[in-house]
Design a protein that fits this description.
alpha+beta; D-Amino Acid Oxidase, Chain A, domain 2; 2 domains; 9-stranded mixed beta sheet; 8-stranded mixed beta sheet; 20 strands; about 25% strand; globular; binds flavin-adenine dinucleotide
């Protein structure tokens, strides 16, 4: 397909998950941008398989800063972005047994720095907030009342509608199969034909490392780790639907209400190759066992199961910025288990860096450390 028929763009974003869609939205008007997705629908992979939680007391300092900085957009997106609120109240309990008391107390101290309403609650208070919990199991919990459920579909639709209004072209079934430097830009071969772009953005989730290798960019390891969730009938407890999301403080399992059912997870983190991920029987069994040790949630039948790939750099911090080894190659990867809740801030930041602008006002004074996010923190390739 190579030849003079290549379509010309200023920027080509590889990956139509929340990362690519958010950036396409914030890049704004006045540029020729194409969003390339290998599947026939956007958000097919990890974005469509998340637990959809917004919690400020989760992840390392960089994640927490990006999460807090995203709140203003979630609370008040531009007019017409979504018909309903993007966040709805949920609350999160980080629970512990007596032998986990110190871990719970550490979480309370850490959480209170960012979300002042976070507090230590007793076992009985925790049961009142998450009524499926067994009183004999729980000792104490860190309660984050301001944690929310995110409407991920509304986020994706809002981003895409805005991007299209700004003239962004969205190509589905357009897998990128080859990338070469060309005329101070890039030539991409895609399943829908060749593209020339001045800038390419690696927002390809689990495929980040192979895409970077294709372009000869810095060899930054972004490891896909499988995480399983499954849905079962909700327990017959009238207040279960408004129960807080309940997470083991050492992240060994979690459960939360989900559209009339109960969503359970073993909180697995199994490194895998980039691929369409499926829930393994063994992970479902482990999740069922751990949740049932802590909570009264009878499991007679698995209504649905799935797995997504949470992608981590070695320091568990996303990688955002231009590659020093490959001019015009931009990283937007390694969002781990936080890519939805950090999406507004990550996307705004990435757009500003690409457009050569200062960090947007909404993100200033939020403790976002560009050096900690930069690809330059990883060593340069030995040969290039
Ligand atoms: C079980 C689970 C629970 C989670 N819970 C939460 C949560 O509560 N809160 C939260 O904030 N986050 C959560 N996450 C994490 C969140 O889902 C991810 O961080 C986020 O979805 C990553 O988005 P992405 O766009 O980087 O990746 P993806 O959604 O995977 O998108 C990458 C896209 O790139 C495309 N692509 C790859 N290669 C190519 C190619 N060669 N050509 C064209 N396209 C290509 C893929 O098809 C894919 O659609 C959870 C994840 C899982 C699995």
């Amino acid at each position: 397909m190579a030849g003079s028929s290549a379509r010309q763009f200023d920027a080509a974003i590889i990956g139509g998950g929340i990362a690519g869609a958010g950036l396409a939205y914030f890049l704004g008007q006045g540029q020729r941008v194409v969003l390339l997705e290998q599947e026939s629908a956007l958000g097919t992979h990890t974005t469509g398989r998340s637990a959809a939680l917004y919690t400020q007391a989760y992840g390392n300092a960089e994640i927490r800063a990006l999460t807090v900085a995203s709140k203003a957009f979630f609370d008040a997106p531009p007019a017409g972005f979504a018909s309903y609120p993007l966040l709805t109240p949920r609350g999160v309990l980080l629970i512990g047994r007596t032998d986990q008391r110190e871990a719970v107390e550490r979480e309370v101290v850490a959480a209170q720095k960012l979300t002042p309403h976070a507090r230590l609650v007793s076992g009985s208070e925790a049961v009142a907030l998450s009524p499926a919990l067994k009183p004999t199991y729980i000792d104490a919990a860190c309660y984050e009342p301001d944690a929310m459920d995110i409407d991920v579909d509304a986020m994706m639709q809002g981003y895409l509608a805005g991007a299209r209004q700004n003239g962004v072209e969205v190509w589905m079934d357009a897998a990128v199969t080859d990338i070469k430097e060309r005329n101070s830009g890039w030539r991409l071969e895609t399943a829908k034909g060749p593209i020339d772009a001045g800038i390419i953005v690696n927002a390809s989730g689990a495929w980040t490392t192979p895409i970077a290798a294709m372009a000869g960019a810095r060899a930054i390891k972004v490891t896909p780790k499988r995480r399983t969730t499954f849905l079962v009938t909700a327990p017959e407890i009238s207040s279960f639907a408004s129960s807080a999301a309940t997470i083991d403080v050492d992240e060994q399992f979690y459960f939360k209400p989900d559209a009339g059912l109960a969503l359970l997870s073993p909180a697995d983190e199994t490194p895998v190759e980039p691929r369409d991920a499926f829930a393994e029987e063994i992970d479902i069994a482990i999740g069922a066992d751990r949740v049932q040790t802590a909570a009264n949630i009878p499991i007679n039948h698995i209504n649905h199961s799935r797995a997504g790939l949470r992608c981590f750099t070695d320091d568990k911090t996303p990688v955002v910025g231009f590659d020093d080894d490959a001019p015009g190659f931009f990283w937007l990867a390694g969002q781990g288990g936080y890519g939805i809740q950090t999406s507004p801030a990550m996307s705004m930041l990435a757009a500003a860096l690409i457009n050569g602008q200062n960090v947007p006002g909404q993100l200033q004074d939020r403790g976002i450390d560009l050096t900690a996010l930069s690809p330059a923190r990883f060593s340069a390739n030995e040969t290039r």
